[in-house]
Amino acid sequence: DQNGRNFYAVTANLNVNFRAPCPLGEPIECVATITSVDGKKAFLEGTVTTNGKLAADAKGLFIKQLRDGE
Asked: Whole-angstrom Cα distance, residue 44 to residue 18?
């Protein structure tokens, strides 16, 4: 179903751009957004920020897989 109980996704492609270091001991915020879905393919974009500064951004392609036995 669409709530993720009967499937999971595997990474087909992931491109990460590291923009700045993350200081040790400081909190980080990770945000990901599904930008589009095409059948079993899900395209996502995400960011990592620390202290209000962009540390990394990424784009990825993930493929939906059914769980075993379902």
From this structure: 17
Global pTM reads 0.80
Give the pLDDT confidence of 18-31 residue by residue, as tens digits: 999 999 999 999 99
For tokens 């980080």, what's the residue?
28
Contacts of 66 (CB under 8 A, 6+ apart): 6, 7
Give 2-7 contacts, CB < 8 A, sequence gap 24+: 6/66, 6/67, 6/70, 7/64, 7/65, 7/66, 7/67
The residues near 14 (Cβ < 8 Å, ≥ 6 apart) are: 58, 59, 60, 61
The SS3 of residue 16 is strand
